[in-house]
Amino acid sequence: MKTLDFGIYSLALVSPFFVQAQGCGAEKESSRPNVVLIYADDLGFGDLGCYGAKGVSTPNADRLAANGLRFTNAHAVASTSTPSRYSLLTGEYPWRKPGTDVAAGNAAMIVSPEQYTVADVFKEAGYRTAAFGKWHLGLGAETGKQDWNGEISPALADIGFDYSYIMAATADRVPCVFIENGNVANYDPTAPIEVSYRQKFEGEPIGRDNPELLYNLKHSHGHDMSIVNGIGRIGYMKGGGTALWKDENIADSITYKAVDFIKANSEQPFFIYFATNDVHVPRFPHERFRGSSSMGLRGDAIAQFDWSVGEILRALEDEGVLENTLIILTSDNGPVLDDGYADEAEELVGEHSPTGYLRGGKYSTFEGGTRVPFIVHWPSMIKESAVKDGLVSQIDFLDVMASITGVSGGQRLSPDGAPIEKNSWLGADDGGRPFAVEMAANHTLSLIMFGWKYVEPKGGPAMVPWGPKIETGYSTDPQLYKTVDGELDENNNVAAENPTLVNGLKEELERIRNTRGYYIECR
Asked: Which domains does the chain possess?
């Protein structure tokens, strides 16, 4: 064991391979819960009613918060999608593995079959496992070499999922088809699929050359390649036929598949990874949600997301399993308004603050990039609703689930998470995590610790350079911001006045970056 001295701060550290959960709340439950992770895309800290949203109603998410725990200091590991999802599923920081930046639609599978995942935790505990919606972690053995007209391998069955109905990447990237258990769903043999991220296909129109074909959404920046459903995409695609999705039906498709899975597996414990695309561009919600907010398509997409939450709740209630189902609702990173489509998100935002008035947003090192909604609902265990300000990181998801299912035996099973966070996630421990690390789009790392946030000096443009009007937070100088009662003041850099603290946090960040299994002892 080692003691760190930060001037007025000191702390005992120990390798997590030897941390026992006893004394930190690892008691087994008598009945294993079903677990549903509702993982929103680009949903900001301020985008739900229970977090202060204006101009949009989210009664189903608010219901979860009103009957569960709502966290105000929870963080995705990264301010972009692929790395945050990678870390949540594997418990490994994304900088440890090459290829975890925002993935192309034809990227090879980033999570290796030999890696231990959250789905493996549940399989080991005897659960049925399923994934629905946005994937964005690659498929197949080699980038650009997938057979979209046959079986794609490796796929999600190789990392612990019994069933999957997913999008290969996101709705703004080709291929624009669902993948069901490693094969294109509703495959149309008359329209074989070809995908390229290098060159367009002869005779296939693209957004930049044929804007008259963009009858549903036009691009504001980028997103001017293949046209599917009257919307330009990133990447080039040919074929698909009747297998091509319609953006306005994506939420319905993944929601009803998840509902069917709940109905078919209600007699045994199950785990659902339900990853929506609604708030991510292109925002094109079903017409029944149009006009349901005052913010245009982005607000309407939030309402559509909330509808999906409600349908999941309804299915759990109808099957009589809601009481013993643990639901976690969170987001992969912070929000962005104009992320490439002319959907008037900036013009119509009004008084609503997607970040909840935090600085920055998606891509950023500021808190708006990684501080996200985090709601925990488990009626049989959480008897009183509460708002919690303890520090939470999604890096711990694998180990918390291992603890809840009784798989871990008190030991950490992930490369970088911690087995001791169960009670803080379920409300019995208000302390939260001792530290959290965040990664921005350019790999700048930040460390939240001792009530401070330290941002390493790395440099880069002050604003996201490709279109979104978001401050990056990048600087060649170290940054230090003080947290007061869970509220972070990122407008007042006090690094110059606190050199000892800056140096100590810098050393700890380097130790975390370079040391697998680093964790602070639970006390």
From this structure: 25-58+73-187+246-350 (3.40.720.10)
Whether residue 2 has pLDDT greater than 50: no
Which is more confidently placed, 16 or 64? 64
451-461 pLDDT, tens digit each:
999 999 999 99
CA distances (Å), 439 to each of 71, 101, 257, 328, 420, in order?
A: 20, 11, 33, 22, 23
Beta strands 392-393 and 74-75 are parallel
Instruction: Tell me if 82 sits within 8 A of 100, measured CB to CB.
Output: yes
Helix (H, G, I), strand (E, B) or coil at 384: coil
What single DSSP character describes residue 297?
H
- The phi, psi pair for 506, rounded to 5°, reads -60, -45
Evaluate if residue 420 carries a pLDDT over 60: no
pLDDT tens-place string over residues 443-491: 999 999 989 999 999 999 999 999 999 999 999 999 999 987 667 889 9
What pLDDT, on a 0 to 100 scale, did the predictor assign at position 441? 98
Q: What is the pLDDT of residue 64?
A: 98
pTM to 2 decimal places: 0.94
Name the residue among 83, 254, 238 with its Cα closest to residue 175: 238
If you search the block for the tokens 């920081």, which residue do you land on? 93
* Rounded alpha-carbon distances, angstroms, from residue 494 to 4, 228, 374, 502, 505: 21, 49, 29, 9, 13
Q: How far apart are CA 130 and CA 4, in angstroms?
A: 43
Q: Where are the beta strands (DSSP E) in 41-127?
A: 69-71, 74-75
Picking from 23, 120, 29, 11, the residue whose alpha carbon sits closest to that of residue 420 is 23
CB neighbour list of residue 289: distance below 8 Å, 6 or more residues apart: 300, 301, 303, 304, 307
Tokens of 190: 């008359």
- Banded pLDDT at 429 (limits 50, 70, 90): confident
25: Cβ contacts below 8 Å, ≥ 6 apart: 420, 422, 423, 428, 429
